[in-house]
């Protein structure tokens, strides 16, 4: 049986306020109490959403203020943290605060980003999580791993499935990708909420099919995903980013418990 804990990255898409981060993290920890011995939990919040559809869309508090807020969450709750970085020169600063730094999907092939992220993670004993681009086959992620290995061991590298472009404004998930990405000796994570996006589907915003989150997440865990990345919100329809795909916060605990039961069934 698989004895490693299930990686769990959860929080809001973008940091909307310090109070919301505190409230959401506290709520998640309360919900996850029954299963905390089975998971490696990290709280997630983005300080900048650099690729919003519209110039007028909310992007976040920025690097300095965003990291200050995340530090306060860590101090209050003692949790691990994950956030994105968007330029190579941000990597060291971000890795000095959070435990896992993430390369967005559109930047996954940028060698300077990967090397800067890997070097920063080595310096600060952090993990590097890289989202597989919507344009990339799972087989090609082996090249990403090789780049990151210039500075990091494979146990510090994670790959993430977040869907593949299927025509215009649509994504599909290839469940075989988890086995393929894991074959490179790294953990493979399922991005449960971004996988159900409809990119640009609302014209000036990204749409999505929130009702498909559980279905695809269950399939991903059954297919061997080592963890789940999932964005939640107290009032998803009012979220300042990814409103169409954020999971209602009050449903998170039950869904994770269900996914862990599936994981147990397929790993025994």
TrEMBL record:
Pathway: Bacterial outer membrane biogenesis; lipopolysaccharide biosynthesis; Carbohydrate biosynthesis; 3-deoxy-D-manno-octulosonate biosynthesis; 3-deoxy-D-manno-octulosonate from D-ribulose 5-phosphate: step 2/3. Its main location: cytoplasm. Residues 3-257 form the DAHP synthetase I/KDSA domain. It is found in: Cytoplasm. It holds the Pfam family DAHP_synth_1. It catalyses: D-arabinose 5-phosphate + phosphoenolpyruvate + H2O = 3-deoxy-alpha-D-manno-2-octulosonate-8-phosphate + phosphate. Keywords: Cytoplasm, Transferase. The keyword Transmembrane helix does not apply. One of its GO terms (molecular function) is 3-deoxy-8-phosphooctulonate synthase activity. Its EC number is 2.5.1.55. InterPro entries: Aldolase_TIM, DAHP1/KDSA, KDO8P_synthase. It is an enzyme of class 2 (transferase). The keyword Signal does not apply. Transmembrane segments: none annotated. Belongs to the KdsA family. PANTHER family: PHOSPHO-2-DEHYDRO-3-DEOXYHEPTONATE ALDOLASE. This is 3-deoxy-8-phosphooctulonate synthase. The lineage of its organism: Bacteria, Pseudomonadati, Bdellovibrionota, Bacteriovoracia, Bacteriovoracales.
């Amino acid at each position: 049986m698989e004895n490693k804990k299930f990686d769990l990255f959860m929080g809001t898409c973008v940091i909307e306020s310090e109070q919301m981060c505190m409230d959401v993290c506290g709520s998640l920890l309360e919900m996850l109490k029954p299963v905390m011995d089975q998971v490696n939990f990290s709280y997630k919040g983005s300080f900048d959403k650099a690729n919003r559809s519209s110039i007028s869309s909310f992007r976040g508090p920025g690097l300095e203020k965003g990291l200050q807020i995340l530090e306060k969450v860590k101090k209050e709750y003692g949790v691990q943290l994950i956030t994105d970085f968007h330029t190579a020169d941000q990597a060291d600063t971000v890795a000095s605060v959070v435990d896992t730094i993430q390369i967005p999907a559109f930047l996954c092939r940028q060698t300077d980003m990967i090397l800067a992220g890997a070097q920063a993670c080595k310096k600060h004993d952090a993990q590097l999580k890289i989202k597989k681009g919507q344009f990339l086959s799972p087989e090609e992620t082996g090249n990403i791993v090789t780049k990151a290995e210039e500075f990091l061991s494979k146990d510090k590298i994670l790959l993430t499935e977040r869907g593949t472009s299927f025509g215009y404004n649509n994504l599909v998930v290839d469940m075989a990708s988890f086995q393929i990405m894991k074959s490179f000796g790294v953990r493979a994570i399922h991005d449960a909420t971004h996988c159900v996006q409809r990119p640009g589907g609302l014209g000036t915003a990204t749409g999505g099919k929130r009702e498909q989150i559980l279905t695809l997440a269950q399939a991903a865990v059954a297919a061997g995903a080592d963890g789940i990345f999932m964005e939640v919100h107290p009032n998803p329809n009012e979220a300042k980013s990814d409103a169409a795909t954020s999971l209602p916060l009050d449903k998170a605990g039950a869904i994770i418990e269900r996914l862990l039961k599936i994981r147990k069934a397929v790993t025994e």
